[in-house]
Every structure is written in C-alpha cells, then in structure tokens.
Automatic annotation (TrEMBL):
Keywords: Signal
Recorded superkingdom: Bacteria
Keyword Acetylation: no
Family membership noted in the UniProt record: Belongs to the UPF0065 (bug) family.
Position of the signal peptide: 1-25
Gene3D superfamilies for the chain: Bordetella uptake gene, domain 1, Periplasmic binding protein-like II
Source organism (scientific name): Roseicella aerolata
Protein name: Tripartite tricarboxylate transporter substrate binding protein
Pfam families listed in its UniProt record: TctC
Length: 322
C-alpha cells in the first residue's frame, strides 16, 4: 500500500471512531432497557419506577424491564449500575440513600458523584411516621412518651435509608428509644406493620397514604416543614413540638458514568414529558409525590449538595451500619 493510501485509510478509521458515539446514540435503544430498583416491590420507589417504565417503553420502542435488587441499604443496586456498561441499557432508580450511604457504611463500592451520570430528578416527598392501629398513641408527643416507658419496635425500608436516618434524627432530638428493624424496602416493612409485627415505621409519604386513608395504619407526623396536601390532617414533626425538624426525600434516574450525552438528553426529555402527563400528575399528587423534572444538571447539583451534607447529620443522629 502506498503512503498516500495508508494515510487515507488511517484518516477514514479515525473518522469512523469519532462518529461511533453519535452512531450508537442514534440507534439506541436496540434491546430492552433495565430499570434497576434498589428495594423490594411495594413501598414508594417500586410503583413509581413501574409507572415511568410503562410510559417510557412506549416512547423508546423497546421493553423497559423493572428489576428489584434490594439489600445493603440500596448498595447492591447502586454497585450493579455503577459497574454496568454505559450504553444506556441499564438505568438506576436512585434515591437519597445513594448520597447517604457513603457516610453511613464503613465502605461502599461506588462513588455517588463519580460513577453515575444523572438523568433527571423525578419527584420529592416527605417522610411519614406511621404506627399500627392498636398502639396507644394519638400523636407524636404520646408516641415519644410511650417509647420511654415500654419497648417499641420501629421499622424502616432498610439500613441507610432516609426512613432509617429520619428515625435516628427524631430519636436524637427527642431523647426517645426504640429497637430499629430494617427491611429490604418499604413494602415488607409496611406489611409487617399492618400485621402488627412491629409498632411503627418511617416511610415516604406515598408508600403509606392509601393505607392511612383506609384506616389500616395511623399517621403520627410528617417530616416536611408544611403539612402534606395528600394527608392534610396529619401535623408536621415541627408542629408537634420539635421545631426545625425537616427530612425530605427525592427520587431520580441515573445511568452509569460515561453514558452518551445524547442518550441522557433523550431520557431526560422523555421522562419529563411523562411526569407532565395529566394522569401522571394526578396520580402522583394523590399519593403525596411532587413531580420535579429539570435538566440532568439539576440532579447533579442535588447530589453534589447532599453528599457532603449527610456525614454531619449521620454523626448527630449517631447512626451507623456495620
């Protein structure tokens, strides 16, 4: 081969390599997309993931398969996505634990800021303290007093979950006492509460709203600064005597770091469109979710603010997972 032909071949190969990412993005997705959920079915994360998946697969023209991988406060799912190929076919339904766990666990196998490409924040919501119907406590003050007089079991969606941390913060602020019972998601915790196996649970508001309305469990307090429109009769923790107490939760979609920007932008646009659909807005509001949307950078900013924020709160609460 002549020198001129060799140079031309090298230039052609270089151009093909340069176009490869754009070409991949144009044909994406070319197979089913996996939506990794870090908790068991039930609770609030799983139903929202399935709602988005149902609409997203219509837009993408490929199945969007929800896979539940609970355990270790979400770390199993987080590590799975962090190590996945950044081709847009494996996505994470992330929540607060992604930012909390590095402060709570001695070691995690991922970096929440380095190993993920934020797609979109989907919703935010408050935490709700709920108790079994037979527990003799009508409000937060009575509940806290009860914990000082008799053994109480309080569940959470898992070690490292925001429900766990909200409970630890409440314990630290109020001088209360209980035995923490971690579950692999809000669904199993809620089932045991309704069966009377535990006394109380801290859950995201949407996970418990329907059951509170039906009288299967009783709501004691909400963790936001204002009452929740979905359950307006339930007072805030601050109203109940602990001024300044606030814990809010977020959920969002993330991809492995290195995923093509074109893929991220399309996922962002499609999910934002889904969150704006009237039937979705109505469904989310009725459960206690507030749709958020926004560009990928907004979720990146939220993570960048949360990761350094939680170590101080974890230390104040005295929470630790071995």
């Amino acid at each position: 081969m002549s020198e001129a032909l060799r140079r031309r071949a090298l230039l052609g190969a270089g151009a093909a390599l340069a176009l490869a990412p754009a070409a991949r993005a144009q044909i994406w997705p070319d197979r089913p997309v996996r939506l990794i959920v870090p908790v068991s079915p039930g609770g609030s994360i799983d139903p929202l993931a399935r709602l988005i998946a149902r609409h997203l697969q219509e837009a993408l023209g490929q199945p969007v398969v929800v896979e539940n991988h609970p355990g270790a406060g979400g770390n199993i799912a987080f590590e799975m996505v962090a190590r996945a190929r950044p081709d847009g076919h494996t996505l994470l339904v992330g929540w607060d634990s992604l930012a909390i766990n590095p402060a709570l666990f001695p070691k995690v196998g991922y970096d929440p800021l380095r190993d993920f490409a934020p797609v979109i924040q989907t919703v935010r919501t408050a935490q709700l303290l709920v108790v079994r119907p037979g527990l003799p406590a009508a409000g937060l003050a009575e509940f806290l007093d009860l914990t000082r007089r008799q053994p109480i079991t309080l569940g959470s969606p898992g070690n490292g979950s925001i429900g766990h941390l909200a409970a630890e913060l409440l314990k630290a602020h109020a001088g209360a006492e209980w035995t923490h019972v971690p579950y692999k998601g809000g669904g199993p915790a809620l089932a045991d509460l309704m069966a009377g196996h535990i006394d109380a649970v801290f859950l995201t508001l949407p996970a418990a709203t329907e059951h509170v309305r039906a009288g299967r469990i009783r709501a004691i307090a909400v963790s936001a600064t204002a009452r929740a429109p979905a359950l307006p009769a339930v007072p805030t923790v601050a109203e109940s005597g602990l001024a300044g107490f606030e814990v809010t939760s977020w959920q969002g979609l993330l991809a492995p770091a290195g995923t093509e920007a074109t893929i991220l932008r399309r996922l962002n646009a499609e999910t934002a469109r889904i969150l704006a659909l009237p039937e979705v807005v109505s469904q989310l509001a009725g459960q206690g979710f507030e749709p958020v949307s926004g560009p990928p950078e907004a979720l990146a900013t939220r993570l960048a603010e949360d990761v350094p924020r939680w170590p101080g709160i974890v230390k104040l609460a005295g929470a630790r997972v071995d």
